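Hey there, shall we discuss this one?
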Amino acid sequence: MTGVDDLAKYVDYPICKMLITLDPARRDEVWAAGKKQFDGRIDLYPSSPFFIEAVPLGVAKDGSLAALLEHMGLGRENLMACGDGLNDRSMIEYAGVGVAMQNAEEPVKAVADYVTAADNDHDGVAEAVEKFILK
């Protein structure tokens, strides 16, 4: 693997998202350092134990869902959002019903309206659909 000093020298097109892979033991340290270094310029979200997503400032799942709902003429009370990673936290907080999977990170569970008994690999989303949509 080769490191580069300035990624912008190698990219001549707009970047909508960059995924950083790293040792899970260093994720929180790198995330904190990145948030400090790039504060006000980009948003960083851990999306798994070994990924950090870098996106343009203000681009998050909650904002995207808000734009979609506005386009559809619906309010957030019509929205259920499910997730497990820290990159899902904003949409879970925003949604009328925010659902964290059983295997979600604790800060995600803390803002959820409901935490599933099943994880995302074992029908956690189906559990939420059955409980809140098909009831």
Observations:
- The chain has five helices and six strands.
- The two ends are 51 Å apart (CA to CA).
- The CA atoms of residues 43 and 57 lie 5 Å apart.
- The chain has two domains: 7-56, 61-132.
